[in-house]
């Protein structure tokens, strides 16, 4: 891998409570872009920095220690006096499908763009790749959302590549219309799109993966890897006919939390290393296939492929 690559992942990491049997809960730290940052670091994709805001509490301290242990840089983590990180709980059904319950209305990460951008912009503009998601946009107030998109537009105009996942959680948006407008604005700034078909269907009403790929192509995105769960992924992009990359059909999912985030990491790591898109999608399917056989978003390091 090319360790000279500098990757900035922007978003929110929360305290995660997951089922541990017999009425017990296991504490961890997770969030879509943080999960991808951790897996990117484990895969040796380069210097990965996480961009967020935390409080000055023991759980925020522990979260920073968690990133340090994973090799994720924290120089762009703002610490806000008197604030706390968000918290969420995962419940899984008998098929491994998960549901989320959030306590995040006053999460410190919502103030990520709350101050002058003088401190945030310079390190971002030194990146080779910026990665963010629709959840990154969702947690921000409209003015802060616009400021982040303007900063990403500035970075892209400077030659920095932008990767975006349209990760959609309906209860975090004011309306589906707001989500649709915000996600569309992000797509117009995207070089590598990493959506999930179910999310795109929920927001934009796409009837099937091919209709989704055709719509995404109209944004002018150069590269798209559309995740379709157990069906694998479709890869394509501007002027490129979509090709399906199947997943391993023999996998039995225990918990699908983090599947898409890990796919994104393996895909981006492979592309940064020069692999073709189809090989990158196959790598994404492999890692996601391992992640879903373990509870929680982050698997033990010794289970990595």
Task: Describe the model.
With 305 residues, the protein is α/β, with parallel strands linked by helices. Helix content is 35%, strand content 22%. The protein has ten helices and 13 strands. A hairpin with a 5-residue loop joins strand 6 and strand 7. Helix 1 crosses helix 9 and helix 9 packs antiparallel against helix 10. The protein is globular and about 50 Å long. It starts with 5 loop residues before the first strand and ends in a 14-residue tail after the last helix.
Distance between the termini: 15 Å
Structural class: alpha/beta
Strands of the largest sheet, in order across it? 5-4-1-8-9-10-11-12-13
**What's the β-strand tally?**
13
Mean pLDDT across the residues is 92
Coarse morphology? globular
What is the helix fraction of residues, given as a range? 25-40%
Uncertain stretches: none
Helix count, per DSSP? 10
H/E element sequence: EEEHEHEEEHEHHEHEHHEEEHH
CA radius of gyration: 18 Å
β-strand percent reads: 15-25%
- Outline the biggest β-sheet: 9 strands, mixed
């Amino acid at each position: 891998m090319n360790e000279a690559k500098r990757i900035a992942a922007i978003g929110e990491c929360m305290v995660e409570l997951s089922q541990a049997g017999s009425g017990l809960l296991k504490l961890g730290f997770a969030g879509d872009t943080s999960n991808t940052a951790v897996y990117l670091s484990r895969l040796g994709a380069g210097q990965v920095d996480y961009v967020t805001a935390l409080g000055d509490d023991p759980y925020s301290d522990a979260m920073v220690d968690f990133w340090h242990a994973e090799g994720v840089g924290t120089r762009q983590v703002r610490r806000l006096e008197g604030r706390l990180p968000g918290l969420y709980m995962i419940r899984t059904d008998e098929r491994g499908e998960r549901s989320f319950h959030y306590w995040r209305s006053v999460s410190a990460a919502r103030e990520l763009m709350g101050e002058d951008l003088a401190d945030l912009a310079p390190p971002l503009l030194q990146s080779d790749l910026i990665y963010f998601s629709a959840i990154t946009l969702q947690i921000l107030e409209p003015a802060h959302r616009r400021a982040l998109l303007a900063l990403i537009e500035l970075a892209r105009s400077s030659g920095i590549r932008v990767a975006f996942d349209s990760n959609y959680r309906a209860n975090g948006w004011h309306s589906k219309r707001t989500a649709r407008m915000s996600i569309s604005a992000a797509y117009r700034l995207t070089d590598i799109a990493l959506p999930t078909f179910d999310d795109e269907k929920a927001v934009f009403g796409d009837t099937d993966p091919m209709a989704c790929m055709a719509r995404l192509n109209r944004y002018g995105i150069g590269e798209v890897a559309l995740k379709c769960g157990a069906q694998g992924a479709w890869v394509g992009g501007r002027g490129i006919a979509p090709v399906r990359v199947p997943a391993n059909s023999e996998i039995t999912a225990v918990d699908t939390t983090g599947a898409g985030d890990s796919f994104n990491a393996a895909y981006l790591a492979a592309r940064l290393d020069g692999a073709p898109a189809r090989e990158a999608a196959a790598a994404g399917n492999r890692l996601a296939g391992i992640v879903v056989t373990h509870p929680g978003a982050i698997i033990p390091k010794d289970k990595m492929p």
